What does this fold into?
Amino acid sequence: MNMKQEHKTKVGGGLLAELPILSEVPAPRPAAPAQWRSLSERADAASGEVDSLDRLLELEAVGADPAHRRDFLRLMGASMALAGVATQAGCAIQHPEDVVPYVEQPEQIVPGKPMFFTTALTLDGYAIGSLIETHMGRPTKVEGNPAHPASLGASDTLPQAAILNFYDPDRSQSVIHQARPNSWNRAEVMLLELREKKKQNRGEGLRILTPTITSPTLADQMQRLAQQFPQARWHSYSPVGRDAVRAGCRTAFGEDLEPIYRLDKARVIVALDSDFLGVGPGRLSYARAFAAGREPEKEIREFILSEAPSVKPDPAPMNRLYSVECTPTITGANADHRIPVAARDIVAVARAISAALGVGGSETPVEQSLKGKLASHAKWIAAMVRDLKAAGKQGVVIPGETQSPAVHALAHAINGALGAIGQTVEYIEPVAAGPDDQVASIRELARAIQQGAVDALIVIGANPAYDAPADLDFANLLASDKIPLRIHSGLYHDETAELCHWHIPLAHELEAWGDARAFDGTASVQQPMIAPLYKGKSAIELMATLLGEPGRTGLEIVRDYWRKAGLGDNFEAAWKKSLKEGVIAGTARKPKSVTAKAADAMALATVGNTRDDLELVFRPDPGVWDGQFANNSWLQEWPRPMTRLTWENAAYLSPARARSMEVKDGDEIEIRIQGRHVTIPAYVLPGQAESTITVTLGYGRRRAGRVGSNIGVDVYPLRTAELLWSGSGLEVNKTGKEGRLSLTQHHFQMDDPKLVKENRELIRTATLKQYQEDPKYAKVTEQDKEHPASLEWNESLIVPPEPQKKRQEGEQNSWGMVINLNACIGCGACVMACQSENNISVVGREQVLASRELHWLRVDRYYEGDEVENPPVGFQPVPCMHCETAPCEVVCPVEATTHSAEGLNEMTYNRCVGTRYCSNNCPYKVRRFNFFQYADEETPSLKLMRNPDVTVRPRGVMEKCTYCVQRISQARIRAEIENRPVRGDEVVTACQGACPTRAIVFGNLNDKKGAVARAKESPRNYGLLADLNTRPRTTYLGKLRNPNPEIEA
Amino acid sequence: MAEPVYEMPAFRDETLKVLAPGHTYKTVTDDISGVVLRRPYDRRWFVIMAIAFSLVSVLHLAIAYLLLRGVGVWGINVPVMWGFAIVNFVWWIGIGHAGTLISAILLLLKQDWRTSINRFAEAMTLFAVACAGMFPLLHLGRPWVFYWLMPYPNTMDLWPQWRSPLIWDVFAVSTYGTVSLIFWYVGLIPDLATLRDKAKNSIARTIYGAMAMGWTGASRHWHRYKMAYLLLGGLATPLVVSVHSVVSFDFTIAVLPGWHSTIFPPYFVAGAIFSGFAMVISIAIPLREWYGLKGFITMRHMDNMAKITLATGMLVGYGYMMEAFMGWYSGNPNEMFTQLYNRPFGPYAHTYWMMLGCNVLAPQFLWFRYFRQNMFWLFIISILVNVGMWLERYVIIITSLHRDFLPSSWSMYHGTIWDYMTYYGTIGFFLFLFFLFVRVLPAISITEMRELVHETQHHGGGHHVGAHGTAAPTSEGGA
It folds into this structure.
C-alpha cells in the first residue's frame, strides 16, 4: 500500500517533470565525473556509489521479477491482464526526484494542443517516414509522412502500433549484469575495458550481431570499428530477411542490387509468391500506386494520388494483377486472377513464363514446359503470359522475398525481356548495410563460436536465442560458455538477454536520435520525441562507446555524420530542413541501368520433377512479425488480414487437405520435417495450395513479457538455415486434441452449404466491362433489379442526408464517409490507427474467444461463390455508419446515443447505463461494449500513451466509432477562430490517415468541392443495408475486377 | 339494475364441482386458516424450503460476483447482447400473467371457479414479477444508475428517451407490479382479519391485526371493499394485455429479422397466459395434495385450467406458424433466412424443435379428459410447457441475434455458469417466497370461499347466484 501511495503522489504531480519534452531534454546527470583521465578513475568514481546503488537496484528488482508477475497474471486471467499489470508495475520503487512546475513555459508548447514531429520508424531496418503526434511532450500517435517515399502520408499496422511498444511497461528498464541489476556507468566501463583489451589484438574474437541495418550513421560507425579493429566482425541477421532478393540480383546482373517497382506505370502485374502489398519495405508506396492504377474514375484517382506526386499512373482505366502463390496473402486477395501453387513449384512457373517469352533462347509454349500437377494451370499461365507480352514494358513480374534466388533471377530476366527495366522496375544499390547474405553471416558466427574463436559477442537489437536458424542451435551456443563475454542490448530482457552476461536496455526509436533509409534509399533522421523512458541507450550510443567516444550523445553523432556526409554546406539549414520534412533531400538511390543475364537465370533455375509430398512454408506473422512485437497487445489482438486470427498462430491447411485429414479449425496437428517437429493448431484456409502447410513465425516466446510470453507455438525449431522459407518432406499427423482458435470472424460459409448460395451483396463487385456498360451497377442488388422503381428508390436511400434546413443552406457541417472497396486492399492499417487514436482497450484472448473484441473499426473478409479451394476474397472495412435514421438511437432508454446537428451518431459514455439494446438494434454490429473493466487505468506508462482528447471508457458502457469526433472538434475550433467554414477535406480521421491506398474518404459533405462530396457522386456509391432505411452516412464504392477475358471464359 | 344471472352448469361428474360437497362456513375457515395457524411444520415443506433457500444463496453469490466483475461474467457477446437475463425476464413476466388474468378478467366474467385459485395465482404473479424485475436491473452494464430510466427531476434536465421500448417496459412492468400488489393486498384484507381473530399467538395477532387495517366486517367495509375490488379488477384487466404487449415491443421495435414483426403483441400475450396457467397448474397440484385442499381446488379447477392451457397453446402454435409464414411471405432474404433456415435448421435447431414439442405437441394431450384429470400427467405437461416457454424466448432472442445482417459478425451464444446460477437462483427465490406465503397467508381466499359455500348451499343446483355484493358473511361468519 505504501508503494502504491508513493506511486500515486508521483503520478499526481510529477509526470511532466519526470518526462522532459524535446526542447528541454536535460543534460545527463553526472553520475560519473564528466571529465576523466583514465579508465580506472572513471571506474572509481562509479564504485564510489556502489553501496547505495546496489541497494537501490535490488529494491527496484523486488517488484519487477518477471516470473512472479507472470504467475500473477495467470491468476488474474487474460481479461484482467492489464489491470493486473498495473498494480505490479506501479509498485516498483521510483527514484526520488524533485517535482517542480514550469518556471518558464517552454516555447511552442500549448497545453491541449498536439505537436507533430517527423521521424522514421523502421521494420527490419527499412524506414517508414512518420509524423508523431505529441501531447505535452508525450508521443501518442503515429501518422505517415507525406514527404517520405515509403509512406506517402500513410502508415500501416506495425508503425501504428509502435506507440504501444514504446510505452510497454515490460520493456527492459535496467542494466543487468549476471542476472542482477547494475548501472549504465558500469556497463560503459565494461565496454571501454573491452575496447582497451581488443586494441591489443586488432579486435580478434570480437563479434557484433545486429538485425538488418540501413542507418547510415550506424553503418559508418561499423566501418570505423572495422578500421580500428580489422579482425572484428559485424554479423547481421533478421529472421525476415531479404537474402534472396540480393542473391537473385547478383545472379541476374552480376552485381549487388535491389529492385524497386514503379507500379503506377504497370498495366499487367504478375506476383510470383509475392505479397508486395502486405510485406516488404516498399509496401505502402506500391499499394498506393497499385490502387491508383486500378481506379477508373478520374476524380477518385486524383484523390488517391493526392499527397503522392511521385506516383503517375498510366491513363488506362485499370491494371490487372495475377498472383501465383502458395498461401493466401492480401496481394493474392486483390488479384484479378490467382492460382494456388506450392512454393517449390513457383520456380517452374517462373521458368515456364520465361520460356514462353523466349528468355535466354527460343520461345517454348507454356503447355510444354509445365509438367505433372502444374499442367492443369497451363492454360491459365499461357493466357497470363500473352497478356504480359502484350503489356510489354508496362508489364512487370514481382518475385516474392521468400522465394529462391532462382525465381528472382528469372523474374529480372523476364522483366528485362519485357523491356520493363527502367519502366516498371528499377534497380538500385542495396539499401541495407552489412553482410549481403545474412544466413551465411549468422552461420559463420555460429561456426566461429563453435570453434571458440569468439571471446566477446555484442548483440544489439537481435534475439538469436529465439529466432536464429534452428540448426545453428544458437541458444545452446550462448549458454555453453564458449564465449567468455556476452553482451546484449535490446528493448526487452529477452531469450538472448537471459543467456548473456550483460544486458543493456536499448532505447526505442521514439526516444533516441538515429537515422534510417527507406526502400529506395531515401534517408531520414529519427528524432527522439521524449527522453528515454527507461534509461535506454541507442545502438549508436553503444557503438560510440565501443569506438572510444563515450558520453557522446546520439544527436551529436548523427549530426556529425551528416555534416560529413554531404549536408556540409550550410549544414544548419539543411539539417533543419531534413528534420522538418522528415527526409534528407537527395539521398534516394539513383536507378542503375542494367541488363539481366537471362542465360544465368535460366541455368540457375533447374526444375526437378514435381513432387506430391507436403511442403512446409514459413511466413512472418503479420502482427507480431518475427516475434519482436510479441509483447504488443494491440498487435496480438489485431485480426490478421487473411485469417482473422488473434493472439496465436496456426498451421494453415487447404480445405481439401483438411478434408482428407479430417481436420477442422483448432484441431492440434503435429508437423514433422527433417526430424524436427512441433504441435500446432490447424486452421483451414481457403486459397491455400493443397500440398502446402504454412506456419507463421513470432509465437511461443518464452521471455517476451507479460503479454507475449508462452502464447502460440514457436515454429523456429523447424526453421533451419536450409529451410528458411520452405521445404518439402513434411509429415503431418493429428494428435487428437481439439481446441478453439481466437478468431474475430468465423467462416460459416464453409460449414454451411446453404449459406454459400445466399448472396447478401454486401460487397458489390463487377468486372470492368460490366462497370463500363452499367456504371451504376452497385446501386441495386440483384434481387431488386426485378423492380424498375428500385434504382430510384435505392438512390434515394443514400443521398447525402439533409434533414435540417440549416444544413441545406450549408451553414453547418455535415459529416460523411466513403469507403472505396476498389482501393481497399484489406491490410488492416485502419484498425490499428483507430485503436491508437481512440484509446481502444485490448480485451485478451479469452474475451476474443467470447466475441467481445473492442475494435471500433473492423475489416470484414468475405469469400465469394461456391468454390472453397480458391475463392475470390473481398474486404470491407466497417466503421459506424452514422445512420441518419439510426436504429440505435431510438432504442436507447436514456439518450446516451443521440444524433448531432452535424449528423454524427454520438455516444455519451457518461450517460450510458449499458442496456446494450443499441447494439442489438445495430444492423452493422459496430457497437462495442465494455463487458468488464477492460481499460487499464493504473499502469503509469500506459496513461502517458493515451490520446488526451479521447475519453477512456469504463466498464459497463457502450462505445463505437465517432468519426474521430475529437479531430472534428479541433477543426471546428480552428475554423471558428479563423472565421470560416470547415473545409471539406480539413478533417482526416485516423483510419483515413493511415490508409495506404486512400480508400477511406472523409469530410464535410456541405463543401461540394470536397473529396467526400465528390466521391458520393460516384456512380458506384452504395449504402450497406440501405434498404433498412438507415440512411448511412458511411457509404461504399463498388469493387471492380479486371479479369482477363481469356481466363474468365 | 337487473341482477346478472349465472346458471351453474349440470356436470356429469361430481368431481367437477367448484367446491367439494359438505363444506360449511366453519370448515372452509378452519381448513384454510388452519394451513397457516395450526398445521405443524412438515418435512416436505422443510425440504422444499431448504432447496429454495440454497438456491437463493446461489442467487446472492451470482449477483455479488456480477456486480463485482461486470456483465461479462455472463455469456453475452457482440452479436448476442441479450442472453439469459432477458430470456428469464420475459419468461417470468409471462408466468406472472395468469394471476391477473384469473383475478381480474375471470372476476369480471364472473367465473366462480376462479375463487379457489385466485389468491395463490396472484401471489405467484407478484413473486414472478419480483423475479422478472431483477433481470432488467442486473443486466445493465452499470446497474447502479438504473434510476436514470425513471423520469425524475434532475439538475441535468434530462428525461428518459420516450421512444425506447425499454422505457415503456419500465412503466408497464412497474404499473403491473403495483396494481397486482394492491389488488392482492386488498383481496387479503378480510382474510387477514380472520387470521387476526383466530390467531392464538399474540405476535401473529398483532401482525395480522396491523395488516388487516382495522377491518371489522361492518357492512360499510364490505361495501367499499367490494367496490374497490371490482374497480381494481377493471383497472388490472387492460394490464393483462398491455404488459406483455409492451414487453414484446422490446423486440418488434427493433429492425432485427425474427424480431421485427407485428404478430408479437397478441402472440406474446397468448404465450404469457399459456405459461402462466401452466405455472398455476404446476403449483396447484402439490399444493392441494399436501395441504388437503382438494376440496377447494377441485378437479373442475384443474380441468378448466388445463383447457385454458390447451386453448392458449393452440394460439401460440398459430403464432409460430404465422411467424414462419410471414417470414416466407415477406420475400425478405434476411427474414427468410432467420425463419425458414436458421431457426429450424441452424445451430440452435434443437431448441426450436424442443420448443415446438413442449409448447405445441405436449398440450395436445389435454384434448383428452384423462390427461386433464390425471394429476401426474397434468403436472408433467405443465412443466413441459414452462420449459417450452423458456425455450421460446431463447429461440426468439438468441437465434435472431446471433446471425443477423452481416455474416462477419455472426457468432454463437452459450450461457455461462453464472447465467445458470442466476436463473436457477430466481427459481429458488420464487419457490422460497411462495412456500413462505403458503405458511403465513391464506393461500385460498377464505372470504370468497365462504361466499361460494353460501352460493352453492343456498342458491346452488340450478338457482341463480347472487352478485358478489349480496349477503356476504362477516369475517366472523364461520366461527
Observations:
- Chain A touches chain B through 55 residues (CB under 8 Å).
